[in-house]
Each structure stands twice: as structure tokens, then as C-alpha cells.
Amino acid sequence: MIVAVLAIGGLVACGGDVDEQWDLDHDRIIAVRADKPGLMPGETAELTGLIGHKGAKTEERSPLVVIVPDIPNAPPTPDALKATVHTDSGKWYVTAPDAATLAMLRTQLGLGPTDPVPCTLGISYGETLNAITLVRFGIDAANPVIASPMLDGMPLAADAMPHVGALVDVRLAVTIPDKIELNWLTSVGHMHDFDLAMAYLRVEKDDPIAGELAVVLRDRLGGVTWEVWPITADDPATVTPTK
Amino acid sequence: MSLVASSGIASAQPEPPPPETPAPVEHVAPTGKPIIIVGKVIDAFGKGVRGAKVAIEGLPDLVTKTDKFGAYRIDGVPTGATILVDREGYQTALGTATSNQIDDIVLLSENQYSETIELKGEAPATSPGAEKLDRNELQRIPGTGGDIVKTLTAMPGVVNLQIPLGYSGVVIRGSSPQDSKVLVDDFEIPVLFHNIGFRAVIPAEAINSLDYIPGGFDVAYGRASSGIVALTTRPGGDKRTEQAEISVIDGGLLAQGPAGKDTTYMFGVRRSTIDFVLPSIIPASVDLSLTTVPSYYDGQFRIDHRLNDKWKLALSGVGTVDTFELYGTKDTSASNADTKRFYNRTRFLRVTASAKYHEGPWTANLALSGLLPEFIFEAGAFQYIRITNPSVTPRAEIIRSIPEAAGLKDVVWRVGGEATVARNTVELALPREQREGEPMGSYDPKDTTERFTGKIWTPDFAAWTAASANLDPHIRLTTGVRAEYYGRPEQLLVQPRSELQWKLTKPWSVRLSAGAFSRPPEFQSENLQKGLKAEQSSQVIAGTQYEPREGTRVQASVYYTDRTKLITHELDGSLGNSGRGTTQGAELLATFRDGPWFGWLSYSYSHSTRVDHPGDDRRLFTFDQPHSLNAAVSWKKGKWQLGGRFQLYSGLPFTPAIGSVYDNTRNLYIPVYAEPNSGRAPIHHQLDLRVDRSWHWGAVEMTAFLDVQNVYMNKSVVTYIYSYDFTQRSAFTSIPIIPSIGLRGVL
To answer: Chain B partners of A190 at a C-beta cutoff of 8 Å?
Structure first.
């Protein structure tokens, strides 16, 4: 009941004061990606963040620091896990321990003999911890794939530079398997149904007409992928409104 | 046993005609065996009326006057004779000489003709700060729309806020909503208000009276560690009426009246109307589909039957159904649109059968009540809670009045018992619940940390006894004990309670109250964990009352509450009884009733804190509201009624977010908070106005009203809502102006 009160009341009583979750025009970490979220013994993956900026383009950037932190209200993280991250030439990597160490870690963590060993990584782009992400050792897993992205019914190639109309609903779609979550994000216009496979973009009066469009896919096992396109829109002041 | 006086007619019969029902008093021929009768004549506030003429109908020699305490004695009165009571400024009251000890006869002043005063055989001692409002007064406080929820916010000690709080909605004297109980005809109801419109589940038209007891309540009440709000449904009157009312929020029908010589009825039904307009006021740009527009129905009934002079029976019921379903998208056919679905259905039916017996010094109150509640909430594709918890509550209380015993006068002894047995069928998959004092976490639609499917029995039993007596003509002491056995935690609690009433020099009186109270661990997820114990409180209250003239009353009270065994989250996420808390405060309530005028002034000061675990820092209680002021005045004459209410109260505490950490795997931001409740929303003030105009339309008595809340459109902050990454916050503000227009017709 109170949810309904807040949901409906919230629509009436507030809104517009804070940036929406789909808004790329905002300082934040949008996503963090390991090249491979599931690593077999000895495999290495690079860590990269997608960073959003207020008034500027998004960027892919390596973290300043990566650690394997202790988890609050949980037993201390084993040293063997803490030793899995390292930096080289300004980039950060995570390397799965060898098979013997993984076996020891499974015993230490109370896991089964073939279970993947989860490892939470702490990511920092400054002086404090900014993000956490998950990789798993002892399992071969890849990041999800962005399949058949479409804009207004047309394929959206990775190197496309789409241009959309104003004051119209511009349909966006991507094919995703079960258990994959996605977010559509933009700094042009207003994104609707940003967390559904089929979303739509609408450029209203006073909206920016040049910026970026992005889609981020993730699974709950640490897999992340994204695509970012430059995008422009008609000037809403010069078009006649339609549905 | 109840004595009811209405329209100036009082009955000393064991069972009264219902309020507003000056039911025919049976004039038994005074031919019975002569007896000596003793009794007392009191006014609407329970004070003895001095110098009232007490006579026996048809026997002019049998007449006397009441002494300074309102007491009288007449010898040689034939059994069954009618007692006539007169005094200047009051309406004549009647009684019947059925035994030696006549129950109190209530004299109503001339200007109280429309009020109903109910005195239970020996009503539980009201504690300092308690207040009783009848239906007419409930509807006269401006800015409440005649609604009980909003009327409660005018009570001293009740936290005032622009939006409702929790399901019971009443925060009394620095305690959580679940610590106080809302009763209808003496039995708990699970929900106080509907999910839209902020309306109580019972319209004021179906209510006879509201008793507000903020603390120090009698041993007959239990399962609450703070206060009691007791609503009595409206019995049918002696004149049949049907009425209809419609406003922009809801519309309803109510019929009441007599059904034969000894039976009255009341039936009411109401439906929301705001759901017809709600879709049109939501902006088109919002990604929302109201597949089931939020709506509600509620219904009430009451049938009273007077079996004979000794027995009175009643059957009453209240029920409600609230439903909504919405999607956070316009495209409900999208493949994963179910992740954006929210569904709720809340409904309950409470039916109570009661029998009241009175003969001579003996009174018995017997009742059997059943409750059928259901609560379903589904959020997205993974989270849900479905609960049905039917319960049955038998209750019995026996009262014995003794004029004099062991040197004490007017001794009344009560003993009672009840059992509340519920079977909870629970299916849930939810995130860990947010307890009082805990800031809101990130919204993760896939988080189902708490899962449970099964049945839980909660058999609770209680027994109580209390004695009241006059220690001297000015001092009356009530002392008793209530024993509670909570079956789920297998816990027995013995709770002593006492109240001392000291009538100083007129018009001053003083009341002192102290006692122990408890609430069973049956709120939300508390049931799921067997080892939890009841929350407990100890209350000390001192109050004084100044009543310079009839209709004018000023009462002030100070209180201190110590809370122990408060249920909080432990570090491992389980629930424990590690919390403690204290509340201290002071309250003032002044009421004024004279002719067309009705005035109300209340002020509360409160300071409420908690310590969640031993060694933790003391923090503010989440609903701590240091200052709350309500001033209302209403004028009623002829066809017009005008009123205004001014409210001024402190904002509530909140916990500011100072940062966040992004959880890449769950795609959410984990907030980092400052000290709990270290921020506070700004002070709020508003003015409400109400105008009523009545006229006749043929045989129909019509009333139109306009109730405007917050007329000068003060848009103040209720609390703050953070952005998804906790780097920005938005003020959740009150709606700047709330007009309500309604029309009522009574045939």
C-alpha cells in the first residue's frame, strides 16, 4: 500500500530534480568490465570502466587502483584471492590462481570441488572505493553479446552515427537471452523503458540534440558488455509534434 | 453493561437504548415490592451533579435532592418504578428502579442535545491525556474532511505528517505505528486507511465515537506498548434514515434505524471515486500503465438487539478491499514487462458478536470476534508477499460493584480474559525488511534475501483483574494487573498498572498513571523468527485537568516512557531484542464548546530516542517530532457551519546519504550514510478551512461541504528521496492544496 502511495504520490509531488538513471550526462561509473568474467587457472583479464561525465562524452578508462577487499560481516578474504590483481603500464588485470590454489580456496570457502570461486574486486578512480565487481575463477565464461541492436527497425551497426527525429518515439531494440539485464542510456532526449529490451527515445523541446546513445548488457555472474554510439537529433523547434 | 444517555434521556436500565435512540422507556407500574434505592447523578463528564431533584413517577412523596457528590437515596420505592431526575440547565433524565443499586444517571445539559455519552458499567479508567470524540465532533474539526485518520492528527501526542505512516498510521508518543492498536468495537483491525486518498477504512458517518488513549491504558487493553485508538461503530437510532454522500475522493450510502421494538440496525457501504479521475491527472509522459486503477470499497454494519432488561446483544462488522495493479511502462506486452509490474490487494473482514449482561451489582461483557485478513503484494518478477492470517478472539469480562467494602467506597472489581489465536499462512520472497531507524537501501528487484513458505500459529492469551475504589471523597484509585502469554515466543509477561485520580479544589483535578505494557513479536517478518520476544515499555504519566465551566476543559500531561527488548536487526541480518528507547514529552489540550462554537487547541512536545544495540550511540527515533500545534475553531448556526484549523509541526528526521559504491554485478549503487537520523526535514505549517451549508430538498436534508486543506499552498518538504546513485536528492513535498467538495443527502 505504501508503495502505491509513494509511487503515485511521487509522480505528483516530485521528479525533475535529479538525473534519471538512463542519463549519460552525469558523473558516475556506468559499468565495469573484465575481458572475461570467468577465468580458468592462470587466465588473465583486463579491467575497464565505462565512465559518464557531466557535459562531456563517456570514456573507457582503466581504474586507478583495484583491490580484493574484505567483505563486511563476513570472514576475512583469503590472501590467495587478494594476490590475484596486479597493474602493468597503467592498466589493471586479474589473474586466476593455479589449480592447486583454487582447490585450497574452495576448501577454505566451503565450496564444492568443481564450484567456481567468486572474487569480489574493489575498483577506485580516486581516493575512495567507487565500485565493486565480480569475477569467478575455475570456470570459462564470456561476457554477454549485444545481438542485433535496432533503431527504428533498422540495424544499428557498431560504427553507426544515428540521427533521429524530434517529438517522435524512436524505437530501440536488442535481442537478449533470459537472465540478461540491459540498460539503454542517452544524453539526447528522454529514454523510456530504459531497462526493457524494447525501449524508445523521444527528443522533446529543450532537450540536447547531440550526444551519445549506449546500451549495457550484464548477467548476474559478472559478465558485462556495452556499446556506445554518437547520436544527433532534429531540432524540436523546427518540427511539428506527432505521436 | 452500558448506560447510554441520548437527547437528555438517561436510563438506569442495565442495557440502554442505543445512542441517538431515545428508545421508549418502559413505564412499569410502580406496584412492585418496596425497596431502598441508592445511586448517583452525573454530568456528561462523569462528575456528580449536586442539587438535582430525584423523584419517583406517580408517587409525589418520594422525592429527594442529590448531595454534593451527586448521590441520592430514597426509601420505599416500588420495584420497577420510573425515576425522574431534573435540574435547571439540564434535560430531564429517566431511570428505572430495578434493584437497590441504581446505575449512574447521566444529566445532559441543554446544549448537549445532540451529543451521545456512553458510560460503560464501570468504564476502564481513562488515563491522563485521553480524549473522547463523538461523531458530531469528529466531523467538526476542519481540515480533516470528517476523516478519522486526519482527526487523529489533531490529537496531542500523535505525530502529524502530510502523508500516512505505515499501515496503522498512528505514531503516538514517540512509538512506532505497530506499537499502538486501532480497535473497532474493542477488537483490532489490521489496516487503518485505504491505499489511495489517505482515507480511513471506516467513514465518520459509521462511527459513534472515538476514544484516544495515548498511554497508561487500562488492563482490559493489551498487545500494545504505546497507545490505543478505540472506535465504536454507530448503532441505529430510533428514527429510520437513509443517506448518500459523494465527494471527489469517494461516495457512500448509509441506512440506519429501528427494526421492531428492541432492534436497531446500521448498514454502510462506500466506494472510491478518485480512481475515476486518477488516470487523467497522471502526465502522459510518465511511463505508467494503471492496468487496475487503485480503488477501494469498504462496508460496515451493526445490529443491536435488546433481549430483555438484563441482556443486550450486538453484531457488528467492518470490511474493506483495496486493489491496484500498475506497470512502470506503457508497453505491458513487452517481453520483460513483468519486471515492472506492481500489484496489491489488501482486504479484511472483522465481525464481532457481543452480549452484555447486567443485574444488580453484576455486569458481564462477553464477545466473540473473528478476523479474515489478506495481504498480497507483488513487485516485479521475483518479489512477492502473500499473507492470510485469520484469527478468532473470544473475550469475557465480569464486573462487580460494591458500594462499600473494607472502608472503601464505590468499589468496582473487574476480572477478564481473552485469547487471540491466529493461523498465518505466509509466502514471501523479499529483500531484508527495513526496520525503524534503518535508512533505505538500494532497490534491487531481484533481491529475495528473505524467503518463507509455511504456516505459523500465534496463540496468545491474556487475563486481567483490576479494582477501583474511592480512598476518600476526592481520591479514586484503580489498580490492576494484566498477564499476557504470547504463544509463539512462549513468553509470559505480568504487567501491573495503576491510576490515581485526585479531585482537588473545584475545578482542578490531577491524575497519575503508571504501568507496564508489551507488544507481541508479530509485526511483519517478526513472526518468521521463533526466538523473538515481545517488545516492552514502562510508562509514567502525570496529568492535570482544569474545568472552569461546563464545555470548557484544559488538560495538560507530562510523560516518560522507557522501552526495552525493541526488535532490531543484528549484525548477521537476523532479528533480535537488543534495542532500547526512551520518550519524554508534555501535552496540552484545551477544548471549548458553547452554543454555536467549538474550539480545539493542542500542543505536544516530544523527544524520542533509540539505542539499537548495547554500546551503540543514542539516535533520534525515526518519527521524532518535537513540536506539534493544532488550533481549530468551528461555528455552527442554522444552515451554516464554518471552521478553520491551523497546524504547525516539526519535520521528521532522516538519514543523509554521503556517498555510494557502485555494485557492477547487481547494477545498483550501495549508499553510504551519515549517522542515522542526523538530518531533519523543515517545519511545516498550513491552514485548512471548511464550509458546510444545509438545506431541504423535498423530504431530503441536504448538506454540501467544501473542505480545503493548506489554503495558502505552503509546499513543504515531507522527506528527501535520493537519486539512483545517491549523489542527488529530491524533496518529496506535500501537495500544495487539497480541496474536497462533497454532497450529502439524508432521507
So the answer is: 285
